[in-house]
């Protein structure tokens, strides 16, 4: 096992009446970055967060902002999300025939380029793109909502992607997004994930952000210890 798996809390399940506080709690509890789920009501059914939220989160944390664009025509909006303070700009393979160009533009601006794979999209869809990517998000739910059940088929995909990245000698990191819990986090780590996104497992009524993150980290430390 190499470096410890990092956690990316997704604010989609946060209490938006006190968003700043929730982001600071996640930062204090050791979040690697803050994951922001942008949905346009077209690529996925719901409309969620947009530029004002990215700008607001930017003002309360120095953590990298991991912007997950679940939108059509992402090339029209990627620049605005970078201007708003996004650090990792993640675009869905299914929404972007010119993902190569977007990724180059993101890197040209000194940001990190990410690509996301829906559960039904094979890893082969981005094999040629990997050298242009800092991150791949493997969706373990069909995007649109937090609190859905983890799709087990994400794990063999992560294993295949891990092999492709390692064989190519690349540093592209793998993030798993959707349905992550303390129960399946160890399997995600063992499959080769570098970062785990979690919304409902971090922001919920059953524990504080710190308690919930330490539950995840504790589950991960058991695998990492062997
Ligand atoms: C799903 C989003 C996820 C979601 C995760 O469409 O991309 O980031 O917020 O939520 P949980 O962790 O509750 O599955
Ligand atoms: Zn997401």
Written description of the protein model:
It is a single chain. This protein has 226 residues and is α/β, with parallel strands linked by helices. It has seven helices and eight strands; from the N terminus they run E-H-E-H-E-H-E-H-E-E-H-E-H-E-H. It has helices at 19-28, 51-60, 78-83, 99-108, 154-167, 185-191, 209-224; strands spanning 6-9, 34-39, 65-70, 88-92, 112-117, 135-139, 173-177, 195-198. An eight-stranded parallel sheet has the order 1-8-7-6-5-4-3-2. Helix 2 (51-60) links the parallel strand 2 (34-39) and strand 3 (65-70). Helix 6 (185-191) crosses helix 7. Residues 10, 12-13, 35, 37, 68, 141, 143-148, 177-180, 197-201 line the site of D-xylitol-5-phosphate. D-xylitol-5-phosphate binds next to strand 2 and strand 8.
Q: Output the radius of gyration.
A: 16 Å
What order do the helices and strands follow? Answer: EHEHEHEHEEHEHEH
What's the pLDDT, averaged over the residues? 97
Within the largest sheet, what's the order of strands?
1-8-7-6-5-4-3-2
> Total helix count?
7
Question: Features of this protein?
Answer:
alpha/beta; 7 helices; eight-stranded parallel sheet; 32% helix; single chain; binds zinc ion; binds D-xylitol-5-phosphate; 226 residues; 18% strand
What is this structure's SSE topology?
Blueprint: E1 6-9, H1 19-28, E2 34-39, H2 51-60, E3 65-70, H3 78-83, E4 88-92, H4 99-108, E5 112-117, E6 135-139, H5 154-167, E7 173-177, H6 185-191, E8 195-198, H7 209-224
Parallel strand pairs: 1-8, 2-3, 3-4, 4-5, 5-6, 6-7, 7-8
Helix pairs in contact: 6-7
The chain binds D-xylitol-5-phosphate and zinc ion.
Zinc ion is lined by residues 10, 35, 37, 68, 177, 197.
């Amino acid at each position: 096992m190499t470096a410890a798996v990092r956690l990316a809390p997704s604010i989609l399940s946060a209490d938006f009446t006190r968003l700043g506080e929730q982001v600071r709690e996640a930062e204090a509890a050791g979040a690697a970055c803050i994951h922001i789920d942008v949905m346009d009501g077209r690529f996925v059914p719901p409309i969620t967060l947009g530029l004002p939220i990215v700008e607001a989160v930017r003002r309360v944390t120095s953590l990298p902002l991991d912007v997950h664009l679940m939108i059509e025509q992402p090339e029209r909006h990627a620049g605005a999300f970078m201007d708003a303070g996004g650090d990792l700009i993640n675009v869905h393979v299914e929404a972007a025939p010119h993902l190569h160009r977007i990724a180059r533009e993101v890197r040209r601006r000194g940001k990190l380029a990410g690509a996301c794979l829906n559960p039904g999209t094979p890893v082969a869809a981005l094999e040629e793109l990997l050298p242009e990517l800092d991150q791949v998000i493997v969706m373990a739910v069909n995007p649109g909502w937090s609190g859905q059940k983890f799709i087990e088929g994400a794990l063999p995909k992560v294993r295949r992607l891990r092999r492709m990245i390692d064989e190519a000698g690349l540093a592209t990191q793998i993030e798993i997004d959707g349905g992550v819990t303390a129960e399946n986090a160890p399997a995600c780590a063992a499959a080769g994930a570098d970062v785990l996104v979690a919304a409902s497992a971090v922001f919920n009524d059953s524990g504080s952000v710190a308690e919930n993150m330490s539950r995840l980290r504790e589950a991960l430390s058991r695998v990492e210890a062997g």
